[in-house]
Amino acid sequence: MKFLDAIPYDIVVFALVSVLLGYRLWRVLGRRVGVSEAPAPRVVPVARPEAIVAAPAAEPVATHEIPAPGTRVGQVLATIATLEPGFVPERFLRGVETVFRSVVLAFATGDRDKLRATLTPGAFEAFVSALEARQAAGEVLQVEIVAVQSLAIQDAAIEMPGTGTQDTGPRTDVKRGMIEVLIVSRQISLLRDRDAQPLVGTEAVTEFSDLWRFERVFGMQTGGASWRLAATRAA
Fold first, then answer.
1. 29 lies in which domain range?
2. Which of 103, 104, 156, 175 fits 161 for a cystine, CB–CB 3.0-4.6 Å?
3. Any idea which UniProt keywords this protein has (predicted)?
C-alpha cells in the first residue's frame, strides 16, 4: 500500500492528457502540412457529352443582281411585269436557279422528260442531239453542282410579233419576251470515255460562268415552265 501511495497520480494524469492532446494535434497538423499519409484521391464522375457531329457547312445563298428601274433593262423588266401578272425579277431568278440545277443534272443523266419541260423546242432538239452523240460514243458525264454563287440579269427584250423587232414600251400585241441571265456556279464536271478515261473536265471543283437565255410567249398557256431555256453559252 505504501508503494501505491507513493505514485504521483496527478503527474500521471497530466502526462496522459498531454499525450492525448499531442496525438490529436499531430493528426490535425500532420494532415495540413502533408506529414500524414495522403488520402486516396476522390474520383468525381464527370458526365461525358454525346459525340458532337459537325453539321455540314450550309451552301451559301446565291446573290441576285437586278438592273435598276431607270436602266434600259430595268424598263424592259417593268414592261414584262405589265404583260405577265405576278412577274417579279427576284422570284424569276429563284426560278432560274431551280431550272439551272434541274437542266444540268438532267443533261448529265439523259433525262429527256425534264429537259422537255424546261427547254424551248429548238433548245430541246439541240440537247437531245448532244445526248445521242454522247451515248453513241459510250461517254459518261459526271456532274455535281457544289454551289450556285450568283445570278445576274444581263439583258432583256420584248419581241414584236412577225417583225423580229424589239420594243421596251407596253404594247397589247407583244408576244414574246427574252431575259438573259449570267449564272456563276461551282461544279465538278468531268466527261469520261467508254473506258472511264477522262476526256474533258476535272474532278476538282471549278468555277463556271454561263449565260442562259430564257424566253416566254405571253398570253399562251404551255405545259411545264412558262419561261423556257432557249440557249446557253459560256460567259
1. 2-33
2. 175
3. Membrane, Transmembrane, Transmembrane helix
Q: Decide if 180 contacts 212 (C-beta within 8 A).
A: yes
Q: Is residue 216 part of a domain?
A: yes
Is 218 buried (19+), middle (13-18) or exposed (0-12) by CB count in 10 A? middle
Residues 168 and 129 in one domain: yes
What kind and span of H or E run contains 106?
helix 89-109
CA dihedral over 106, 214, 173, 122, signed as positive or negative: negative
User: Is 76 found in the same domain as 24?
Assistant: no
Residues 6+ apart with CB under 8 A from 8: none
Residue 144 to residue 186: CA distance in whole angstroms: 9
Mean pLDDT confidence for 202-219: 94
Element (H, E) at 104: helix 89-109
Helix (H, G, I), strand (E, B) or coil at 201: strand
Q: What is the pLDDT of residue 219?
A: 78
Q: Which three cell numbers stand for residue 105?
A: 443534272
